Every structure is written in C-alpha cells, then in structure tokens.
Amino acid sequence: MRYTIIANPASGKMNINQKLSTLAKAAEILEAKINGLDTVTADELGQCARELAACCDVLVIAGGDGTFSDIINSIDTTRIPVAYLPLGTGNAMRNAFQYKGDLADIAMRIRGGNIHEYDLINCDDKVKAFMVSVGIEGTVIRLRNQYVAQGGSGLKTYLKAVINSYFKEYNRASARIAIDGELLEVKNLLSLMVVKQPYYGFGMNVVPKARFDDRQLHIVCINTGLFKSVIGGLSAFTIGNRIGQYHTGLQVTVNLDRPLTLQFDGNEGWDAETFTFTTLSKALKIKC
Fold it and tell me: Residue 104 class from Cβ within 10 Å (0-12 exposed, 13-18 middle, 19+ buried)?
C-alpha cells in the first residue's frame, strides 16, 4: 500500500525543520515522502492534497484538527482513504481515534490498521466536519486566533479566550432548534454542539456518547449559568461532560434571534441566523 504524508507548515508550534525531524521515523515506517511544507496558503495546501491523492493509496495528514478539516474538505474522502498523524495543539482527533504513544507508534498502527467508513456532518452544504457548534465557541476561536497571532499558544491561551468570551465578548441568543422536526426552544444559548465524535481539543470529552459510525448526529444544548458551566468544563476534562440536554438525530436546523458564528473542527466559520446540519453517512474513509 502506497502512503504519502502531507504536512501543514502552519500547524502547531514547530518550525519546518523540526516537523521534518519529528515526522522522519513515521515516514520511514510508512515508506512515505513528506509533502506540503513548502505551501504558503490553505488553498495551496488543498491543491497539494488533491495532487497527492491522485497518486497514492492512503493520504496521511500530519497536522492539527484544522489541517485535518482543511484536507478532508479538499479531496473526495469517500474515494481516497486518509490517515492522521497529530501535530497540532489541541488535537481532538488524536483522542477521537484513541491514539497512544508517539508518532512512530501511531504510524505502526496506521500501517497495520484497517480502513473504516465514518460519518461526517454536512454544514449548510458549505463544509463537511466532524464537530461543529453554534454559540460561545465561535467567539472563543476568534479570540484564540488573535492571541496566537500575538505569540500565545497551548491550553493557557485557549482558557484565556474562554474566560474573556464568557465574561466580556459573547452575547447569548435565543434559539429555535429543530431535531428531525421536533422543536426545542432555548433562551440564553451558551452552546449548541453537533458532533460525530466525543472530543474537543486538549482532551475535553464534551459529548461522551458520540460515535463516528452510527449514522446519527449527536447534539448537546447548553444554556447554563456560571456555576454549572464550570462544572461542565471540569467534568469534560475528567469523567466527561455532564451538563446540557443530549439528543440524537439525522438533521438539525437552528434559527436564532441574531447572528452567531459557527465553529467547525476548531475553525472560525461564518455568521448567520440560520444553520442546517445533516448526516453524511460513510463520508470518510480512514485507515487507523
């Protein structure tokens, strides 16, 4: 089986030479060349992915959650299997795939693993994703990106963005949420999470029951105050989130009383008053 690695020069904290060194053993195990580190923009990385996908059996994505999202939105993942080497900061997908050990260990697992067919989320027919949310997370991502541009990184920067979003920047909205046609009315929306796997970055288990392969969207709606929100955050880092209303369904439509920003796969999305999410069954072929 022919493997090719595509790496994002902008993900994580390492420079290009450090990434080449870090990926060297994994590349040797997979007998793969490392590509993509000479790209400058997300569009160039996407074009590189399409070219590489045409001449390999498995495209191995080395980067963070955002890189993984960018690549799976650049190629036909129902036809081209991918794999994942975590090189980012939050690395939700490392936990989602239950990876253990270093990159060499993960490369060995990829090499010996099977190809699975997993579901994704269709977001307004614009992007496919493995985790999306409407609410405070869009503000958190915007602030985090600002802090990273100023030299911040890691969990400390993320928590700073969360605190400033909660107390200063995020203004709650009212929402009418239809899940397979059943209406849920929510005032003071803090977060509506629609996911296909349990994790946010830094190991936060926000939707413990979520699964990649059950053809369902997993939905958690949260409108709690400060105390319960803190409890939810702490439990997500330990035993798994225990707050919010949990639902499953095939389609979710959200109507808001004012525009909010979509978060998808750790990326800042677009602002809108209405969002629609549907299940994309077996949309992702992945070797793991």
Answer: middle
